[in-house]
Amino acid sequence: MKPLKIVIGADTFSPNVNGSARFSERLATGLAARGHEVHVVAPAATRKHGTWTETYDGQDITVHRLRSYRWYPHDWLRWAEPWFINKNSDRILEQVDPDVVHFQSHIIVGRGLSIAARKRGGVRIIGTNHFMPENLLEFTLLPKSWQVKAVGMAWRAAKRTFGRADVVTTPTQSAADFLEKYTGLSGVLAISCGIDAENYTPDFTPRADNRILFVGRVTGEKQIDVLIKAIALLPLDLDVKLDIVGGGDLLKNLEHQSKALGIGDRVHFTGYVSEEELRAAYTKATIFGMPSIAELQSIATMEAMASGLPVVAADAMALPHLVKDGRNGFLFEPGNAQQLADKIEFLLRLPQEELDEFKRNSLAFIQAHDLQRTIVTFERLYRGASDVDPAAIDAIMAANALPNGALESDATDAAHS
């Protein structure tokens, strides 16, 4: 079939570091590698705006960077001008004449592109939600008394924008149920963001020290303070160290918390790191900790699993889709630092062969989240499908001799057993 001309709309994109931005980048490069012409519409990362070519993972992508402004309550967030988004969207779609518009949030860019695409007609519109309004509340500066009303307004706005899409998706079934509940939409499809597991390096060598790893934005909904409290509760003979990879507005607060708990010398804040440094951090860690209560999927947890790490995660939102309690890690009651510490201690005291079984299960379960499978799934939607048909996707994977396709059924069975 002929290559498609695809416009991906994103309110956050590289160099931003978050799950939505990383997914948009991987989707764009994966589609380009399969021969499609890919355009990305996103806020400019600096004051410079316009259209140019950017290269990611060896693929040239045409990026339309919209004039943007810093949102100073946030440590890096920039937003495109909402008062010009319809005009800019009309202009870009007129220039590109796409077959498909795939927007990643309803906030500004997705709203403009969905309106422009619907107005043009003949354009397939796909909407994917990576957003929970609650995640941005702390950056709105709104009084507590106004926040409930603001969340309601955000979900109504989401309903309007996603209502223009031919198909709406989100990364997990729990996230799909969540979106349907708060917008009144129906038929939302669960499609994993996917990762390229071959980019990560598992290491079954016994560790010389016990390192717990967290990767993600250093913000309130991640509840990193709970993980730091758990480290302080662990017995001293385990000599546990905590590596926190990522940046955010709570960095200084958490540094002070670590010192106040007497573990400042055992908690290492790296800030933002390169892709190579991130992969190395996964490889040398012993356990991955994810205390967040607001994950619609958690790409960082999937990367940890692809690195062969046992995971201890909060029993909240989409994390139970990844962590099978007692098999590739454990779930703990959100906010319960003692329970988190107990789960970590249990894993650290296991004989090596039993710990290796947890590691092997992580590697098996992540096969169900293969990036190539995700890209093929979206290709089917772009070409007119309105469902996720595993048999059809398997057939396309086999016909294209894509990696990991043959592993999907076994991995899915393992993950659900």
Automatic annotation (TrEMBL):
Domain Glycosyl transferase family: 208-361
InterPro entries: Glyco_trans_1 (IPR001296), Glyco_trans_4-like_N (IPR028098), Glycosyltransferase_grp1 (IPR050194)
Residue stretches making up the Glycosyltransferase subfamily 4-like N-terminal domain: 17-198
Keywords on record: Glycosyltransferase, Transferase
PANTHER family in UniProt: SULFOQUINOVOSYL TRANSFERASE SQD2
Protein name from the UniProt record: D-inositol 3-phosphate glycosyltransferase
